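note to self: dont lose this again. the chain is below, predicted strucutre after it. 552 aa total, dont forget to put it in the shared folder this time
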Amino acid sequence: MLNRLSIKNYALIDNLEIQFDQNLNIVTGETGAGKSIILGALSLILGQRADSKYFFNQQKKCVIEGYFNINQYQLNAFFDDNDLDYCAETILRREISTDGKSRAFINDSPVNLNTLKNLGEKLIDIHSQHATLEINNANFQLTVVDAMANHQELLHTYATNFKAYKALNKKVQDFLAQSDKEKQELDFLSFQFTELENAKILPNEQVILEKELETLTHAEEIKRNLFTANALLQAQEQAALALLADAAQQLQSIEKYQAPIAEVFVRLKSSIIEIKDIAAEIENLEQITLFDDEKSNQINERLNLLYTLQKKHKVTSNAQLLLLQDEIAQKLDKIVSADDAIAQLQASLQKQKEDLILLAKQVSNNRTKAIPVIEEYVEKTLVNVGMLNAQLKINQTIATDNNLDNNGLDTIKFLFTANKGHQLSEMSKIASGGELSRLMLAIKSLIAQKTALPTIIFDEIDTGISGEVANRVGNMIQILAQNMQVIAITHLPQIAVKGEAHYFVYKEIKNDFTFTQLKRLNHEERVFEIAKMLSGENPKEAALQNARELLN
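---
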C-alpha cells in the first residue's frame, strides 16, 4: 500500500507531499491541472526513464519518494535475492541530477533501475484504458486462474520441486557432456596409462641409475688409479708397505733404549696394519671394477626412457610420473564408472518428473474447477456495468506429452467478446479500451477477494461511460477498495463520490510562476467539487444539493 508520495522539483511541482488512504482514493481536477504530472512522477519510482528537461527548477535535482507498507505482499524473498534490507515500510526513491544522471534507492540502498522497476511492479499497478493492459499477458491470465483455484501451497510445492528437478536435470546434462568428452579421451588416457605402467617406474630409480652409469663411464680411469694405488702400497719392490716394514724393523731394534721410541714403534705397527687393510680393499675394488659396455647401454636406454617420459608429461622426476600415473588411473576409473552414476541420476530424475507430473495434474484439476467460477462471476459483473452481452471464455490446454514448465502442464488463454453474435477472440484484438478497463476491473475485484494485490491506480478508465453505468463502475471500484488500496483519477461525479479520501489537483500562480498543487478536500469542499462536476463552474444550489445527496 502506498502511504505517502513525495515529489520535489518535477514539472509544475515544486514540493508536494501526498498522504493516501488505505482504501479508495479519488483524484479530480480540471484537464491540464496536473493529474498526469503526478502519475509521471510516480512512474519514476516504478523504473521509468527520466529527462531533466521536465524539472521545475533546472538548478536543482528532482527527488521522488514513495513510502509503502508491504507487510501483506510476501516480498522477503525479493529482498533476500537482491541483498536488500527488508522493512515493513519500504521507501523507493529516485533522484535525477541536473545533468540528467539518475540514481535509484530501496530503503537507502543503491539499486539499478531494473531492480527498482521489478519491485515497483509488485507494489503499484497503473491501469489506463490507453495502456497495454496486463490482462492480455498469459502469465497474468494464469495468475487469475490460480488465485481463484486457491492452491498457493500446492503451487509453492510444485515450484520448489520443479526448481530441484531443473537443477538435477542440468546436473545430468552436464554429467553426460563431461562423460562424452572424457570418453573421447579414453583411448588416449589408456595409452598413457599403459605406457607408464609398462615402464615399471620406481621412485628413486633415476638417481641410482645415474650414479651407476657414472661409475661405468669412468671404469677405466677408476681401475687404472686403483691398480696404481695398490702397486704403490704393496705390489712393487719399493712399495710403501715394504718401506714401512723396514722402518719398523729399525725402530724395533732400538725401542728398548727409549720409551718414546717404543711408543712410536707401536703406532707405526698399528698404521702398517691399517694400510695393509686399505691396500687389500683397493685391490678388491680394482678387481671388481669392470668395463661393461652392455650394462652401460642398458642403463642409458633405461634413463632415456625415463627422461623421455618426463619431458613428454612435462615433469622433472619419477615421483611426479608416478603421481601422474595415479591421476590417469583415477580418470579411467571415473570414466568407466560414469555410466553407472549417470544411470542412477537419470533414475532419480525420472522419479522426480513422475512426482512433478502428479503435482501438475492436481494443479490442472484445480484450475479446471476454477475456470467456470471465473467466467460466471466476470460475466455477471460485466452485466452490472452495462456490458449485457459480454462473454469471457477461458481456454485451458493441458500438455498431453507431460512437457512440464514453471507453471505445470497448462496453457491458459482468455477469449472475449463484448457483443452478441460476435466470435470469441483474444481481447487485444477485439475489445475497446473502455471495455477492457471494465473487464480488468471485474477480474481484479474477483482476485482481490483471494489474494493481496498491489495498489491499483485507475487513470480515467471511466471515459466513454456515464449515468447508471458510471454509478455501477463506481460501486465496483468501491467494492474492490474493500480489499486493497485503489487510487482513481476520474471526471465522473458518480465515481468521485465513492471515495473515502478525495484529492483535488489544481494550478496556482505565484510570482509569475505556475505551480501544480494538490489538497485533500473536507466534506464541504467535496460537495462543491462534486457540484462543479455535475453542472460546471459556479454551481447553483440545486447542483450543491444533488452533490450532497450523491455523497450521502
